[in-house]
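Database export, one record per block. Field names are fixed; values are copied verbatim from the stored entry.
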Amino acid sequence: MDEYEIQEEKFADLKAEWWDLVRRCKQANTIFLVPEWQEPWVDVDLNADGQSPLSIRLKGTLVGLAIIRRDDGDVSFSADTNLCDYLDFLVDPDYEQGVFDAFLEYASDQSWQTIDFQGLQVGSPIVEMLPQIAREIGHSVEITEWDVAPYAALPDTWDDYLTGMRKKDRHELRRKRRRLEEAGGFQYRVIKEMGTELERLMDEFFRLMRISREDKAQFLNEEREEFFRNLIFSMAGLGYLRLHVLEERETVVSAALGFSYNGTFFLYNSGFDTAYSSLSVGLLIKAYSIENAILEGDDKFDFLRTNEPYKYHLGGQDQIVYRCFIELADAM
């Protein structure tokens, strides 16, 4: 029988192997699970004690990795689900059974009481395989639909995308775009690289987030702004950053932060100046980002979690995001 080794390891010591593992995990190969995404949050998390990467190795090779938080006997993913739309247990597809067997044995040895994994995409091995393994050894498992994350499959051209939209939505989008063009003086562009311009536009992005909606102003506290800044610089360095801005001459009136990774564009957050609401600049910056993703050759546009109406007006359709809750047998 293969012997799996489980231990806590430091982020810095894992980075190269982490990248190799996430690329092997087709279902979990998402921007939210790359090491550069996880590291900034730990750096600014004031409650970082009790969270760490839990590695699972077979003959020295990393075949499983879970970034977890322990609160007494209750275990969950360490990342803030307000900042990470998708989370998962990174498992080499060739070793899923062995990794989960070893993980559950470790959980019992550590006297964990519950395991609560949220933010799981369709096809996650936590949804597809872990429940059966856990139930076979007496644990209680509940899989629930936790949220939705609208998305759109991207065709080869913007015209094809428009054709696939609902007739009313297509008409409204064309009308709003035409009205902006007729107003004149507006310019759309995308920032991808490090530099003083990125720093300036990043400040504008935060300003627009805060003034566009009260809930966004409350969300963007000092700690989360620091996370955003670290993340933006990291993603720019890796080539994944896409900061979309719409300007009236030199004034930024709307902005959308996103990332292009592994064939998918992830629309992460946005903001706009409410003084320009009559020109629908908040909606249009998102439409421009869809068109840009098509031009760059992405296959999927992910609006990410929550069912805000604009996502469906722009062609989104739901995909389910799951939660897996396990109560260990010894705790029942």
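Remark 1: The first strand starts at residue 4 and ends at 8.
Remark 2: The radius of gyration is 21 Å.
End of record.
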